[in-house]
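ARCHIVE CARD
CATEGORY: sequence design from structure
SOURCE FIELD: tokenized fold
FIELD CONTENT:
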């Protein structure tokens, strides 16, 4: 019961902390933030949530069936032009990430304050946040309070 209450409470917590949207990043490895949102589903996915809207899982095609078990809306990475981005920015991995996340944020009409959660490589996350800060002027990457919305 508490588990469901807290997920229901995410919008209130986001409002209180002035977070307009969040991303949960991760790979196929354990990721408690993502698993919390996805009802324990272990699909390698990115989760995006805009305040006032349901979270959405974004996965590769081979993860679709597993991701659907979460009960959340699921989209494919190719819905955001991933193949075209890979071609255009071949050999530029951070440009690929910047444009991929730009397309996701634009699709969901996300602007303002964006928090990022998840379990990822520290150096990869550092490089990604620098890339996003430098390349996406319509969002402001922000820190959540301590404890963050997934650990209170």
């Amino acid at each position: 019961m508490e588990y469901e209450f807290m997920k229901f409470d995410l919008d209130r917590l986001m409002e209180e902390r002035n977070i307009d949207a969040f991303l949960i990043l991760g790979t196929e490895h354990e990721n408690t933030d993502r698993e919390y949102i996805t009802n324990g589903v272990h699909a390698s996915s990115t989760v995006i949530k805009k305040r006032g809207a349901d979270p959405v899982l974004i996965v590769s095609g081979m993860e679709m069936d597993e991701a659907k078990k979460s009960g959340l809306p699921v989209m494919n990475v190719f819905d955001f032009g991933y193949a075209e981005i890979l071609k255009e920015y071949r050999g530029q991995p951070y440009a690929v990430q910047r444009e991929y996340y730009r397309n996701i944020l634009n699709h969901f009409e996300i602007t303002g304050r964006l928090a990022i959660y998840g379990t990822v490589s520290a150096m990869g996350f550092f490089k990604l946040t620098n890339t996003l800060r430098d390349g996406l002027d319509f969002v402001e990457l922000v820190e959540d309070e301590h404890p963050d919305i997934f650990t209170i």
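CARD ANNOTATION: Residues 1-5 have pLDDT under 50 and may be disordered. The first helix runs from residue 2 to 8.
SHELF: design records, drawer C
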